[in-house]
Amino acid sequence: MRLHVGCAMWSLKSWQGRFIPASGTDRLRSYAGWCNAVEGNTTFYATPTLDTVAGWASQAPADFRFVLKLPREVTHSSFTDTSGLSEFLRVIEPLGDRVHALWAQLPGSFGPGDLPALSRFLRRLPDSFRYAVEVRDPAFFHEPRRLEELLADTGAEWVPFDTTEFFRTPPTSDAERDAWLKKPRMPLRTEALTDRPIIRYLGRDATDRTVDGWRRWVPIVARWLREGRSPTFFVHTPDNADAPELCRRFHDEVRALVPGLEPLPEPPPLPAPEPDGPPTLF
């Protein structure tokens, strides 16, 4: 029984010296001491090199989960441009079973009328990976049956992005105001289609607001675990400053309802910061 929790990245400036080292190249290794999953958002913008991915593999434990976003030229072309997909699949091979799912985040312009293209795409993909789809047209949430049937037929999961708590009241910080303009206002969805549900949750900069907003998810995730599912829950906040710590708090709250769930390991201590200058006698 495993619950995986994680953030939208494994390195952030505000985390340096707190969750990850202030310098060096082992930040993923330190992040993996706090969380056991991560969203691979950078792969949306550019396919990494094979050496880069091999470096990720060397730092991530065997039970760590990467949910990697498919390249945007694939997902944002209604799947008419898949020329780079073979190279993408090749370079992520060093991650092996750590690739929990390949995630197609579709634009708001992708609507129910485009489902045949999604169906053709999913059916052409190799069965060596699992797949997940995030849609941003509200029409899918109001009439979900066609998309649910397509995903069920292809074994893919529907990834909801819960932004309901974030948009409940107006923003109060620069980070929240920025997110207010960029994040999608999505209807709430709490159903799972497969044995590996993936949830993306956006809270607020205030910890109490973030925790209050995820309260509905705690019993849902606990039920999934009791059903034998293996969920992954990603915590976002507008500034993400406390996100690794919040992930562990969510895990603890679920574990309080599911005592058989093993606790996350304690994070290892960070290396001592390097001195700013040469040593002195005084």
Automatic annotation (TrEMBL):
* Organism superkingdom: Bacteria
The region called Disordered is annotated at 260-282
> Where are stretches of biased composition, namely Pro residues?
262-282
The protein's name is DUF72 domain-containing protein
Checking Pfam families in the record gives: DUF72
